[in-house]
């Protein structure tokens, strides 16, 4: 039986989700994006099966509707949706980073008998747009569903089944808890990353060389500050009250930090760093070489390389020739003997497996997955 999915918004998330759903041949995706070039590109790259000329066209034909639009747009569209015609038994969901305002906007629809269940795949990137869409973007990531109540069990099961090709781990959460937790692990870190970069910009005015000194740690901590500012403005406004709570906690915490530094209290400083190291090291971290942060995951391949300049170029050329994308590349250890270790990170297990196969075929390097 064919299931028709309407995907509204074909950017990073809508595009990636459609690509994953295409793995199930019984799913027919009708796509709509405000930008016609995006819908057209999605169709040409077989990310969607059919182009919808309007949101209403897609919705009227769908068994499942997914809004993968910016959170403010999703709220706006859900308010308009009160006046649209849905198929009997339709399930409507979204992918927004916030849940409470979106669930509130969907309430009139639910009162009309439409099943709405909030959704949020906890994986993504600082890149936006269909060009960055990837079939396995959500592999092994949590995919949160936020129902209104226990009566929506059937809808949850339908979505769980639909999302199987994403290889994400579906979890059910209350929308308020979701917004509280994502404020802590996603939205507030974004504010911190941006404010650190802001500080760098100020410092750079006085001392231009400082930006060149901004090495690994600063880059790791601030990567997300490169994400789409409008998307993050909207998330910040929609999760305002939870973000304000996080700001308060942070200010108290920074006051304590200031005090212990002012007092030059080495013992307290050590306790502070020890405590956070223990928590950080205990976060879900490695399995079969996957480095899984709370939200972000990479799949690493460790390659023993001789200490001469041509080897990195040789490895990246083989990967490029086979169109295998890498997400990161670094030398973790340069030993005094002839070999160092090059760690190449991939987006998913499939890419890493292919990389290992082609490198084994075309080079003599030893490789390990740790
Ligand atoms: N970027 C990320 O890493 C993640 C984003 N999300 C959420 O997923 C949603 C989509 O985010 P992205 O895909 O990253 O953004 P994006 O900017 O890559 O894609 C959004 C798409 O929606 C389209 N759009 C805007 N208004 C529209 C309208 N009225 N009708 C139809 N299409 C419209 C845009 O043209 C664009 O193609 C957002 O709600 C975001 O909070 C969730 C998880 C991760
Ligand atoms: O790029 C990253 O590491 C992210 O954390 C991406 C992201 C952005 C927004 C979300 O709601 C979820 C994940």
Automatic annotation (TrEMBL):
Q: Which residues form a coiled coil?
A: none
What PROSITE patterns does the database record attribute to this sequence? ACT, PDH_ADH
Provide the catalytic activity annotation: prephenate + NAD(+) = 3-(4-hydroxyphenyl)pyruvate + CO2 + NADH
Keyword Hydrolase attached? no
Q: Per its UniProt record, what Pfam families does this chain match? A: ACT, PDH_C, PDH_N
Q: What's its top-level EC category?
A: oxidoreductase
Recorded metabolic or biological pathway in which this protein acts = Amino-acid biosynthesis; L-tyrosine biosynthesis; (4-hydroxyphenyl)pyruvate from prephenate (NAD(+) route): step 1/1
Q: Which residues are in the ACT domain? A: 300-370
**Which of UniProt's keywords are assigned here?**
Amino-acid biosynthesis, Aromatic amino acid biosynthesis, NAD, Oxidoreductase, Tyrosine biosynthesis
State its Enzyme Commission number(s).
1.3.1.12
Instruction: Please name the GO terms that the record assigns under molecular function.
Output: NAD+ binding; prephenate dehydrogenase (NAD+) activity; prephenate dehydrogenase (NADP+) activity
Q: Which InterPro entries match?
A: 6-PGluconate_DH-like_C_sf, ACT-like_dom_sf, ACT_dom, NAD(P)-bd_dom_sf, PDH_C, PDH_N, Preph/Arog_dehydrog, Prephen_DH
Say which domain of life the source belongs to: Bacteria
Q: Name one GO biological process term.
A: tyrosine biosynthetic process
Where the record annotates domain Prephenate/arogenate dehydrogenase, the positions are 3-291
Which family is it part of? Belongs to the prephenate/arogenate dehydrogenase family.
Q: What is this protein called?
A: Prephenate dehydrogenase
Annotated organism of origin: Savagea serpentis
């Amino acid at each position: 039986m064919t299931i028709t999915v309407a995907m509204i918004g074909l950017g990073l998330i809508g595009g990636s989700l459609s690509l994953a759903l295409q793995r199930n041949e019984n799913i027919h995706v009708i796509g709509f994006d405000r930008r016609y070039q995006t819908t057209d590109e999605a169709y040409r790259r077989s990310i969607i099966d059919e182009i919808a000329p309007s949101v209403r066209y897609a919705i009227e034909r769908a068994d499942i509707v997914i809004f993968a639009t910016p959170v403010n747009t999703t709220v706006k569209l859900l308010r308009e949706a009160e006046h649209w015609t849905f198929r009997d038994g339709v399930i409507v969901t979204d992918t927004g980073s916030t849940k409470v305002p979106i669930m509130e906007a969907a309430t009139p629809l639910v009162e009309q008998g439409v099943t709405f269940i909030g959704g949020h795949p906890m994986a993504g990137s600082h890149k936006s747009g269909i060009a960055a869409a990837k079939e396995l973007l959500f592999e092994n990531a949590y995919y949160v569903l936020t129902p209104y109540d226990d009566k929506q069990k059937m809808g949850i099961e339908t979505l769980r089944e639909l999302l199987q090709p994403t290889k994400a781990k579906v979890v059910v959460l209350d929308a308020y808890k979701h917004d509280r937790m994502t404020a802590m692990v996603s939205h507030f870190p974004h504010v911190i990353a941006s404010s650190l970069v802001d500080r760098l910009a100020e410092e750079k005015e006085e001392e231009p060389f400082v930006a060149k000194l901004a090495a690994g740690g600063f880059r790791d901590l601030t990567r997300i500050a490169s994400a789409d500012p409008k998307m993050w403005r909207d998330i910040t406004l929609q999760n305002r009250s939870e973000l304000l709570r996080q700001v308060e906690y942070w200010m108290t915490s920074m006051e304590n930090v200031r005090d212990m530094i002012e007092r030059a209290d080495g013992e307290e400083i050590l306790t502070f760093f020890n405590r956070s190291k223990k928590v950080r090291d205990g976060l879900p971290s490695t399995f079969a070489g996957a480095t899984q942060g709370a939200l972000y995951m990479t799949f690493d391949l460790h390659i023993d390389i001789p200490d001469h300049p041509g080897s990195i170029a040789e490895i990246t050329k083989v990967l490029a020739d086979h169109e295998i994308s890498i997400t990161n590349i670094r030398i973790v250890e340069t030993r005094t003997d002839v070999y160092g270790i090059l760690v190449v990170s991939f987006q998913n297990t499939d890419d890493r497996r292919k990389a290992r196969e082609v490198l084994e075929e075309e080079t003599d390097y030893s490789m390990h997955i740790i």
